[in-house]
TrEMBL record:
<keyword id="KW-0694">RNA-binding</keyword>
<dbReference type="InterPro" id="IPR005745">
    <property type="entry name" value="Ribosomal_uL14_bac-type"/>
</dbReference>
<keyword id="KW-0687">Ribonucleoprotein</keyword>
<dbReference type="GO" id="GO:0005762">
    <property type="term" value="C:mitochondrial large ribosomal subunit"/>
</dbReference>
<dbReference type="InterPro" id="IPR000218">
    <property type="entry name" value="Ribosomal_uL14"/>
</dbReference>
<keyword id="KW-0699">rRNA-binding</keyword>
<keyword id="KW-0689">Ribosomal protein</keyword>
<dbReference type="InterPro" id="IPR019972">
    <property type="entry name" value="Ribosomal_uL14_CS"/>
</dbReference>
<dbReference type="GO" id="GO:0003735">
    <property type="term" value="F:structural constituent of ribosome"/>
</dbReference>
<comment type="similarity">
    <text>Belongs to the universal ribosomal protein uL14 family.</text>
</comment>
<dbReference type="GO" id="GO:0070180">
    <property type="term" value="F:large ribosomal subunit rRNA binding"/>
</dbReference>
<dbReference type="InterPro" id="IPR036853">
    <property type="entry name" value="Ribosomal_uL14_sf"/>
</dbReference>
<protein>
    <recommendedName>
        <fullName>Ribosomal protein L14</fullName>
    </recommendedName>
</protein>
<dbReference type="Pfam" id="PF00238">
    <property type="entry name" value="Ribosomal_L14"/>
</dbReference>
<dbReference type="GO" id="GO:0006412">
    <property type="term" value="P:translation"/>
</dbReference>
Amino acid sequence: MAASFASRCSRVGRSLFSGLSNSSLGSAHEMTHNNYFSQQQRTFIQMRTVLKVVDNSGAKKVMCIQALKGKKGARLGDTIVASVKEAHPNGKVKKGKVVYGVVVRAAMQKGRCDGSEVRFDDNAVVLVDKQGQPIGTRVFGPVPHELRRKKHVKILTLAGHIA
């Protein structure tokens, strides 16, 4: 038993030291690998994009079926058609239902008139009915003030924090 433990330790030690001998190659590879992920391209919200639901309508995650504006996809403030993929058991919206949603957070950056850019870590949506009124009564997390220009003032009033 002690011999097998010693052989395992020596194998681990060799693998650690063999990695150190090529440290210059490894660090260059890690730098390009980390640089790639920090500057990865952020795209539109398009078909089959999974989004987080940030209201209390009962849905947790939805998958985009179609962006209702533009050929490429949806951005902040655009309306999408989505299918509910995960839902709370006692919510208003059930799994598999087709719903409308307004994109309130997008990982793709959007320029503002003052020259700054707004970008979020995740893609999030608030579920609305056909008239554009929110299904839920609360909106969680930050919401950009660009929604005011897109005529989604009701979502802004429900939001706790406007970015």
